[in-house]
Write a structure and sequence with these properties.
318 residues, alpha/beta, 7-stranded mixed β-sheet, 35% helix, globular
Length: 318
């Protein structure tokens, strides 16, 4: 066994050659710290098993194939964001949601930003729109909406492996790019972004997350039940990830909850609503058929992106 053990540095060199791409010592340390592979040794002499590391990477390479076999060939693997580190997929948010199916920020960015692709065939939101999440949890939707409105560049608060390629890319260029991105941020932009949750402790945590992201002044967070939701303006957007009822004892509450969502939506004047949920009776209890419905996978859980579209606002005359 001892012959199989190698240092973190040697493991990164071996993995880089095995995968034919750069694997840094910090990548190996991540696997150790999150229990992906076993840690051997103490006091700065951490070692890992070469055989275990090889088995881990072999399983990882088959992961997409295994999930497609389980969930279907229409699995959009790109939206799993499997290649991202946990530190990137939990930015600004901590595991606060009381129900399964939290949305990682990258998936939220995907739906909120202005790009289109083969799956996302239209832009759903534009700057200046009213955005409201009545089940905001730790604040992922409102925070990402505020960051997009403030023109915060994607990946602004993360590190890139390429930063270590000092022999190819002058570090000064990184500083210049970051400075340029920082100069383009405008947190004084006027927005109407709101996040509600029935849990006061969760709202407090959402405010802290928004503060860490630098956009707390751009979002109105409030403890409020979905049944009490209201807004005086027209042409707003609800975008939310409501409870799925993954726990058996919660499933009985879903008909009433989704009925409330439908009733609230009917009271809002000329609004659109976007729900991402695995609850298959959503349309039944909302009280109308969605205008569009796309199947997506959130954390490898089959969910549906229901789009209830309201009228578009009249075009402004020049």
């Amino acid at each position: 066994m001892s012959e199989d053990l190698i240092s973190i540095k040697d493991a990164s060199l071996w993995a880089s050659e095995f995968l034919n791409k750069e694997v840094t010592p910090s990548n190996i340390s991540y696997l150790v710290n999150y229990g992906k592979i076993t840690k051997f040794g103490e006091n700065g002499s951490t070692q890992v098993s070469r055989a275990e590391l090889k088995e881990y990477y072999q399983k990882l390479s088959k992961k997409e194939e295994l999930w497609k076999e389980k969930l279907g060939d229409d699995l959009n693997w790109k939206l799993s964001f499997e290649s991202l580190k946990e530190s990137e997929t939990t930015k600004h948010v901590h595991r606060l949601h009381p129900y399964k199916g939290k949305f990682i920020p990258q998936l939220v960015e995907y739906f909120l930003d202005s790009h289109v692709d083969d799956f996302k065939k239209e832009v759903y939101f534009k700057k200046g729109d009213i955005v409201l999440d009545p089940f905001c949890g730790s604040g992922t939707f409102p925070i990402e909406a505020a960051m997009i409105a403030a023109n915060v560049a994607p990946g602004m608060n993360r590190d890139f492996t390429a930063e270590e390629w000092t022999n190819l890319i002058d570090r000064k260029l990184w500083y210049e790019c970051v400075k340029e991105a920082e100069d383009m941020i405008d947190t004084t932009v006027k927005v109407d972004i709101q996040g509600y949750d029935i849990d006061g402790d969760v709202i407090k945590a959402a405010r802290e997350n928004a503060k860490r992201a630098g956009v707390e002044h751009m979002i109105h967070f409030q403890q409020r039940a979905v049944a009490d939701l209201s807004h005086p303006k027209k042409y707003g957007f609800i975008i939310t990830n409501p409870p799925y009822g993954e726990r058996l004892e919660d499933k009985a509450d879903l008909p009433e909850l989704y009925t409330q969502i439908g009733q609230v939506y009917q009271r809002l004047d000329s609004w659109s609503m976007f729900l991402i949920t695995s609850y298959t009776d959503t349309e039944k209890y909302i009280g109308r058929k969605a205008d569009k419905n796309r199947k997506i996978y959130n954390g490898m859980l089959k969910t549906y992106f229901y789009q209830f579209l309201g009228p578009k606002p009249p075009k402004k005359r020049n």
